[in-house]
Amino acid sequence: MACAKLIRLACHMFNTRKVHSTANRMSSNWRDLLKKELENGKQEQAHRQVCIYRVPSNMRRVEPKAYRPNNISIGPCYHGAPHLRNMEALKKSFYRRLFNNDANEAKLDEAFKFLEEEETNVRGCYNEDIKLSSDEFLQMMLVDGSFIVQLLRDLSACEFGKVPCLSPWMLPIIRREMIMLENQLPMSVLSKLFELTSVVSAPLGPNIGLRDLALRFFYPLLQVDSDNMLESKKIDESSDLHFLDLFRSAIKPNPKGGKPREFQPHLIRSVTELIEAGVKIKADESKQLLDISFGKKWRFLTRQLTLPPLYIIDHRGTVFRNIVAFENCHKDCEPDVTTYLFFFNGLINSAGDVSLLHYKGVLHHSLGSDKTVSKLINNITKEIVREKTDSSYLYKVVNEANSYFSSFYARKRASLVHHYLTSWVVGVSTFGALLAL
Q: Domain coordinates of the chain in residue numbers?
């Protein structure tokens, strides 16, 4: 009996030690796993410089077709999509034309070597894991990059007119889809391919670079003066991450201006309200698109809001929507285009505001109706929430305009015009005549 008890006690002690030993090993295992996770994170962070993102779902819901290519895929996000496969043959034909000459064919091995060495870094530019194998990924990068480089060379050769191998309707569609955030290649890949194949000169001159060609290509999207864009891009070209970022930085305010940046809690008053209060609206074609100013005119009571002309030719607002999506995702850039669109969202409350801006030469569109434009402008920033940490380059403009609107003179003038002068064409003339008496 006593012997049996001793045996049971020994077994119990053995099992207890075994459980503790297993628990200790498990304790050690979970610690090792978490330490390994930290190491993996450090290694991943060292190789990841994310700059190409999936558009947030809340923004995509407002206008899905503005973010999703329907004809051509560039990069891995839509690679292999069934509805885009028809363009693969065209892209490969451009690849063959780029490298199918004695001078460039010798550079092909250098392109292979560059892409193989940079694969990890290039994959790290995308904010999602890419499921393509190494061979598939590298082939896709080379073909898509070659297509872009050869397309720009073809356009420069024909002075940005018609490309012989493209139908007339294709080029505007390709241009619009190549500016989409999810349809980008890292600038490092394009720059290297352009550099390797730069032996072929173009009529625009041997010194014209990839960025200049790209800006000339995308210029029709907003009808922005291409010379102004090229001039602005003489500042820090190395910072461009991809074509969308290049286009964004070419239209943003000149950093030499030194305009104060603060959080902007309020929108500017509408165009109708500002004009009723005596503000003059002036279009200035000599400025960059985002360079807006507000100040005194020749009379001490008169204020003038000066804006560069804005051209809207795409009923989806593809360019602006994708730039806003990029600024919303990429925390290392100032959201200047988003600020600009919030500014216009305040200026435009109705189709009448669009009509006034058009009359003043500020806003031009081909969308059929002013109401459509008003709805488009008001919807672009619909799902964007501004944080108090967001600084606005238009803070001073909005603050001064709203302060003037709140002045005694502006309120009295606005009340008189609003209640007694219903027709703007007649009303403004009548009011001017009264002031002249």
A: 57-251, 261-436
Strand 279-283 to strand 303-307: parallel, antiparallel, or no bridges (unpaired)?
parallel
Q: Helix, strand or coil for residue 307?
A: strand
CA 65 to mean position of chain CA atoms? 16
Question: Can you read off the two tokens belonging to residue 11?
Answer: 């077994």
Q: For residue 245, give the H/E element and its range.
A: helix 243-251
Q: What is the pLDDT of residue 9?
A: 61
Q: What are phi and psi of 261, to 5 degrees?
A: -120, 125
Q: Are 66 and 322 in contact (CB under 8 A)?
A: yes
User: For residue 52, what are the contacts with CB-CB under 8 A and spacing of at least 6?
Assistant: 75, 77, 125, 126, 127, 181, 182, 184, 186, 241, 242
Which two three-digit tokens encode residue 257?
């201006």
The model's pTM: 0.83
Q: Which residue has the tokens 């210029």?
A: 219
DSSP label of 132: S
Digit-coded pLDDT (tens) for 117-174:
999 999 999 999 999 999 999 999 999 999 999 999 988 877 666 677 788 889 999 9
In this model, does residue 70 exceed pLDDT 50?
A: yes
Identify the residue whose tokens are 């500042």: 235
Q: What does the alpha-carbon distance between residue 215 and residue 248 come to, in Å, rounded to a whole number?
A: 10
Contact 90, 76 (CB under 8 A): no
Condensed to tens digits (0 to 9), the pLDDT of residues 198-219 reads 754 444 455 689 999 999 999 9
The number of angstroms, rounded, from the C-alpha of 367 to the middle of its chain's C-alpha atoms is 22
Instruction: Please state, in angstroms and rounded to a whole number, the distance separating the CA atoms of residues 64 and 368.
Output: 21
Q: Write out the DSSP string of 51-105.
A: -B-PPPHHHHTT-GGGTS-SS---SSTTTT-GGGGGGHHHHHHHHHHHH-SHHHH
Which residues on neighbouring strands pair with residue 364, listed in sequence order?
A: 311
